[in-house]
Amino acid sequence: MYGMKTVSEALQKPTGGHLRHILGAMTTNRFTGLLTGAFVTAFVQSSTATNGIFGRKRISFG
Fold first, then answer.
1. Left, alpha or beta for 16 (phi > 0: left; psi -120 to 50: alpha)?
2. What's the whole-model pTM score?
3. Could you tell me if 18 and 25 are in contact, meaning their C-beta atoms sit under 8 angstroms apart?
4. pLDDT by residue for the chain (62 residues), tens digit each?
């Protein structure tokens, strides 16, 4: 829950009220809402995994 709150606040600070308007437009019906949710979830999960792998230097290319 803390992580979700932190990500939410981090996204809201630079965009202000624009993010709410954009998400409202992208979720006007169930199909676009599903696609938007799937894309955002995949993006957040992949960036979290990349940060965990490379941020902690678990993999080295050398």
1. left
2. 0.49
3. no
4. 787 788 778 777 777 778 778 878 888 889 988 998 898 888 877 766 666 656 655 555 55
